[in-house]
Write a structure and sequence with these properties.
By secondary structure, this protein is of the alpha+beta class. Among the domains are: 186-354, no CATH class; 359-451, no CATH class; 467-558, no CATH class. It has 18 helices and 17 strands. The chain has helices at residues 14-35, 60-73, 83-88, 131-135, 139-142, 164-167, 169-178, 193-200, 236-250, 270-287, 302-311, 314-352, 374-382, 385-393, 445-455, 462-480, 530-543, 545-558, and strands spanning 51-52, 79-81, 111-122, 128-129, 145-158, 208-211, 217-219, 224-228, 359-367, 406-407, 416-421, 425-430, 436-444, 486-488, 494-500, 505-512, 515-523. The protein has a five-stranded mixed beta sheet with strand order 1-2-5-3-4. A five-stranded antiparallel beta sheet has the order 10-9-13-12-11. It is elongated and about 100 Å long. 31% of the residues are buried. Keywords: Coiled coil, Nucleotidyltransferase, Transferase. Residues 213-316 form the Polyvalent protein metallopeptidase domain. It comes from Bacteroides ovatus.
């Protein structure tokens, strides 16, 4: 790599060194494909998308290089950790017993990943604080700091470079299971339901039109993808790989990622766009367990890509950043559709079973030893249930649902006994502490739901709050089939919103095959509708300094090119 031009006159910094390595690996990969263009971008029997030891996915740029790294070194589990992360595994086990020490194996070398960090400096004192501490400050306090984004290089090790398998065999086995994937069906009959649904229901950012012809392309002027029909390809994998290539192109359209203009197609500049599409489609195919070969028409660009890489490693940085943004849009859309399909199957199964209508019991009168309960005692001792109900109804003041004391059962305390009940009322007796009577008014679930819509849940007990959570989950599920609630970050990546029934929050983050990875959580307000809650989340996200800083980074990084 001695022929590379260095930006830093004093010698290469950590970013320069990382880019040199990335460029060297890309040159080696492209030269291999140039010798045999039928070889796939990644080895068949593909690994899953790389993640750190805690399960967080690396972005598209780092993911691509880590996959090449795994392929070159023969790593079977694409999980990585920093040296500090390895050290943190050395904690005492249950009951304080000492566990074998986890360490990086002697002689192992780390691999660079590039992440954006933020430096926070006080405007007057010039004092630096951690970004996590900065996020905890009030809005007024944040105004006193300047926040500077910076691309920073971190060094990571694959788990195979540690003694994790011997020191933590249970964790190693779990990682092996998580990263094993069944072989996909070969041949033209292989189908990938999320993408098939995307095509059928027109859910991509532009129309995708399969036609019985021989060309696959993205038309900028029509903003449309044209592909041959799946049956024309030698396998389903080939069809989806080609489609991912054109979908990557389509993310560069005006109003999406703005990578190109119509006049640039066919020009030398388009060679880089073709590399973005090839790398993007290879990475997306890899994520879903498919093998991606280079598009035959792209072979003509191989020499140009090699020349650019050998001239300047910065070429790979700008290219991989575009790959990162494009693959983020594609995978998040596909993952969202996959989640909806799974939800739909689950709901059909639930609807197939006969659901018993719930009855709720709301306490409207509680009579204890300080009250004159002798008339009720006499009727109870006689076994006069009808008389008990008639007398109990006189204690009802007509105020309706008692929000704090509404339950799914009439008996909720130790010693409770249901002694009389009709269509609308129930009487509960508890013989402890002198004997108490509780008059319960019965409501249907629909009546409870109507009450929640009118009055919210500010003073409600757990039972009514539970119904409110069910309502929010149903509303969100219904909305998700029509449109996807999302927050688009300045760098082009998209954060998705999901209602978390357990925590009663709207969770915001990146969707994965295992579900949404929440980066932010906002309490759900049951006093307003779902749309108002989603709008509030969007406003709160726009106010977060980390995305303001990211906007600044995106503008500087792109040179404001539009």
């Amino acid at each position: 790599m001695a022929g590379y031009r260095k930006k830093n006159a004093d010698g290469p910094n950590s970013e320069d060194k990382a880019l040199d390595l990335f460029a060297e690996m890309m040159i080696e990969k492209i030269e291999g494909i140039q010798k045999d263009w039928k070889k796939p971008w990644f080895t068949e029997g593909a690994l899953q998308w790389p993640r750190n030891l805690h399960g967080r996915e690396y972005n598209g740029m780092n993911a691509f290089m880590l996959l090449l790294h795994c392929e070159k070194e023969g790593y079977k589990i694409p999980r990585f950790c920093t040296f500090d992360c390895v050290q943190k595994l050395n904690k005492s086990g249950k009951d304080g017993e000492e566990l074998p020490r986890v360490s990086v194996l002697r002689g192992e070398k780390s691999f660079p990943v590039m992440l954006t960090t933020f430096t926070c400096i006080h405007k007057e004192t010039k004092e630096k604080i951690k970004y996590d501490d900065y996020k905890k400050l009030s809005d007024d306090e944040k105004e006193q700091y300047n926040v500077y984004p910076k691309m920073q290089v971190f060094r990571v090790f694959n788990v195979a470079q540690t003694n994790l398998q011997e020191a933590r065999p249970e964790l190693w086995q779990k990682l092996e299971q998580e990263n094993s994937r069944p072989a996909i069906e070969e041949g033209e009959h292989y189908s990938f339901a999320p993408v098939d649904t995307m095509i059928r229901d027109n859910l991509w950012i532009c129309p995708i039109t399969p036609k019985y012809q021989n060309d696959a392309y993205y038309s900028i002027t029509k903003n449309e993808i044209i592909v041959p029909e799946k049956e024309q390809f030698r396998s389903g994998e080939s069809f989806y790989g080609t489609l991912f290539h054109e979908m990557t192109h389509s993310t560069g359209a005006e109003g999406v990622l703005d990578r190109f203009k119509p006049t640039t197609f066919g020009s030398p500049e388009y060679a880089r766009e073709e590399l973005v599409a090839e790398l993007g489609s290879a990475l997306v195919a890899q994520r879903y367990g498919m093998t991606k070969h280079i598009k035959e028409e792209s072979c003509a660009y191989l020499k140009g890509w090699l020349d650019e890489l050998k001239e300047s490693p910065q070429f790979i940085k700008t290219t991989l950043l575009d790959v990162k943004r494009a693959t983020s849009i594609i995978t998040q859309k596909v993952d969202k559709i996959a989640q909806e399909l799974e939800q739909n199957v689950g709901e059909k199964q639930e609807n197939g079973a006969a659901a018993k209508e719930k009855t709720f019991y709301s306490s409207v009168a509680y009579l204890q030893f300080s009250d004159d309960t002798r008339p009720l005692d006499e009727l109870r001792e006689k076994g006069d249930c009808e008389g008990l109900l008639t007398l109990a109804k006189e204690y009802y003041d007509g105020n309706g649902i008692n929000e704090q004391h509404t339950y799914l059962s009439a008996t909720n305390n130790k010693g409770d006994s249901l002694i009389a009940e009709d269509e609308n009322f129930a009487v509960v007796y508890n013989g402890s502490v002198g004997g108490t009577y509780e008059v319960m008014l019965k409501f249907t679930e629909q009546e409870i739901r109507d009450h929640i819509r009118r009055y919210g849940v500010d003073i409600a007990g757990d039972t009514i709050k539970g119904v409110a959570r069910e309502m929010a989950a149903e509303q969100f599920s219904a909305l998700a089939y029509q449109k996807i609630p999302a927050f688009e970050m300045p760098n082009g990546e998209v954060l998705y919103v999901e209602y978390n029934k357990e925590s009663d929050t709207l969770d915001v983050g990146q969707p994965t095959n295992a579900g949404l990875v929440a980066q932010h959580r906002f309490p759900y307000d049951h006093n307003v509708g779902l749309d108002a809650n989603l709008q509030a989340v969007n406003e709160k996200l726009n106010e977060l300094e980390e995305y303001r800083a990211e906007l600044q980074e995106a503008e500087y990084g792109s040179g404001m090119r539009r």
